[in-house]
Amino acid sequence: xxxxxxxxxxxxxxxxxxxxxxxxxxxxxxxxxxxxxxxxxxxxxxxxxxxxxxxxxxxxxxxxxxxxxxxxxxxxxxxxxxxxxxxxxxxxxxxxxxxxxxxxxxxxxxxxxxxxxxxxxxxxxxxxxxxxxxxxxxxxxxxxxxxxxxxxxxxxxxxxxxxxxxxxxxxxxxxxxxxxxxxxxxxxxxxxxxxxxxxxxxxxxxxxxxx
Length: 211
Ligand code: C5P
Prior knowledge:
It is a single chain. The protein has helices spanning 13-24, 32-44, 52-57, 74-83, 87-101, 114-118, 132-145, 152-168, 190-205, and strands at 2-6, 28-30, 107-111, 124-129, 181-184. It has 211 residues and is an alpha/beta fold. The longest helix is centred in the last third of the chain and has 17 residues, at 152-168. 51% of the residues lie in helices and 11% in strands. It has one domain (2-202): Rossmann fold (3-Layer(aba) Sandwich). It starts with a strand and ends in a 6-residue tail after the last helix. The protein has a 5-stranded parallel sheet with strand order 2-3-1-4-5, with helices on both faces.
């Protein structure tokens, strides 16, 4: 079974995808990490993220980079949304994502274009969203817990800028697949959102509820 989970930054899609993978016993790929690895490599190499050739050169990152905690930072996310708009970068990362999706037994992938480009054949597709204010508040709370002192307004404007870039790019923009279920997490706790996601996947795939 292939499950595609797409949505904007800080919508809860990563948490939901990990919970679905644990629930159904499937391997999980956070595809945003691949774009973050490219971003991190470009910055390390002193390249220009706006330059398609600099970003393409950074696609040959070593797998060990994927476990670098620096990839999770806000700046890496911002630069990831710049390098991810280059068609050659997307093309360089597509094979790895498609083979992960098509492995025997299935997989859960989360990102921006899983249901539309990477696995249009997915058995279940979720488009996870929440208002920009809710996403900014969640991200801001996380940052405060981690001891960082960025303002809520700055987080909100970064989220809006990232949404604009991800939705406006020509190559595989962030979009809800026609056959995806919309899961708005604005008024849901994490647990409620996960339960709703499991119910939607069960409904779509005919899986028997567990437990
Ligand atoms: O999901 P995450 O915030 O880690 O993604 C970082 C950036 O990578 C996104 O803002 C988006 O521009 C890009 N991305 C993408 N396609 C994906 C996953 C992430 O373009 N499938």
